[in-house]
Amino acid sequence: MFTLRILIVEDDSVSALLLQRALEKNAHQIIGIADTGEKALEILDENGADIVMMDINLAGELDGIKTTEIINEKFDIPVVYLSASSDADTLNKVVGTNPSAYVIKPFNIRELNMVIELAIFKDRKEKELQKLNNELEEKVKQRTAELYEANKELTKALEKEREINELKSRIVLNVSHGFKTPLTSILSSAQLLQIYAEKDHPFKQKISKHAFKIENSVRALNNLLTSVLFFGKADENKLEFKPKKVFMGAFVKELLDTVKAGIENEVTIKAELGNLPKTITTDPELVYQVLENLLSNAVKYSKEGKEVDFSISIENGRLVSTISDQGIGIPKSEQGKLFDRFFRAGNVGIVEGSGLGLSIVKKCLEVLQGEISFESEAGKGTTFRVGIPVK
């Protein structure tokens, strides 16, 4: 049992004396005995106490309950109530003051000591808990301030990144547009060389061969620049759905002519045109990007002399197309990355490419609200299926 400094507040002098003797017998120090609430507050102002033994029914303006409320607010000392009554009204009155304990008179010494120990234990635990709560609140405030500062720095960094991306996009677009004009001139010159080579000339065969190489190289560069410009628009959120009337016959013819003009490996395209109306309404540029990239890839990665199957039709308000080749296929372990920008499968070998084609297809289909699926096996070929809503 530890020694406590105790204030007794009791207006019955006999009860106060008995309580004093009982407490002193257990080595506690009595700092004073007060018979009124006012006197109890005076003693506490002058002397510190560990606990107050408080009679509920005190004479004067301050009864035990009001005095306890002041002690709770001003001194934060545990209070044990003393009362000869245990009726419901009395208990209801004391509950609001959050007493540390309640002792019914007459009390026995053993019970009294146990109540005091529990009251002190409860008070200490409550204060420890309050201290922990205060520390936690302080840590939360500190962490909130740190997060606020971190968020400010992150916002600045994101704004800087946005500015850099905008600058990068502007540079890419400007440089790409700058390449367009000279490439067009080179392409025209190469085509003229081929025309001149048709006439009698001692170097006719060489002129035709090199003109063909120049033309194909320019087309490859032009396609790369078109891809760069496409992603420049996409990264700036300028890729929009612009529907218009499309004449299907002319659209499919231009698509096939463009892809066939770039064939270098003796691959043939077997086209199957299904139920096609004269016109549909969609975004022709985005649809063209989807089909041209898929068909060109099928041709490029096909084995020498093989055939690519291309079908297109309108089914239930959707443009449905299947492109199937007998080419190198896509390794199963790499199929999850197929639509990533700049991704190229490990088995492409010396076949040139930018790795942008399928990512362009995916981006266009997102704008068109279409979908794509594929089946592929390394060494056996790949089949793509595309569905695009049209009107």
Automatic annotation (TrEMBL):
Annotated Gene Ontology MF terms?
phosphorelay sensor kinase activity
Q: Cross-referenced PROSITE patterns, in alphabetical order?
A: HIS_KIN, RESPONSE_REGULATORY
* Enzyme Commission code(s) on record: 2.7.13.3
Q: Does the keyword Repeat apply?
A: no
Name of the protein described by the UniProt record: histidine kinase
Q: What positions belong to coiled-coil segments?
A: 118-170
Q: What class of enzyme is it?
A: transferase
Which transformation does this protein catalyse, written as a reaction?
Answer: ATP + protein L-histidine = ADP + protein N-phospho-L-histidine
Histidine kinase domain span: 174-391
The record ties this protein, via SUPFAM superfamilies, to: ATPase domain of HSP90 chaperone/DNA topoisomerase II/histidine kinase, CheY-like, Homodimeric domain of signal transducing histidine kinase
- List, alphabetically, the PANTHER family matched: SENSOR HISTIDINE KINASE RCSC, TWO-COMPONENT HISTIDINE KINASE
InterPro entries given for it? CheY-like_superfamily, HATPase_C_sf, HATPase_dom, His_kinase_dom, HisK_dim/P_dom, HisK_dim/P_sf, Sensor_HK_Regulatory, Sig_transdc_His_kin-like_C
According to the entry, every stretch annotated as the Response regulatory domain falls at 5-120
Residues that bear 4-aspartylphosphate: 55
Q: Which terms are listed as keywords in the entry?
A: Coiled coil, Kinase, Phosphoprotein, Transferase, Two-component regulatory system
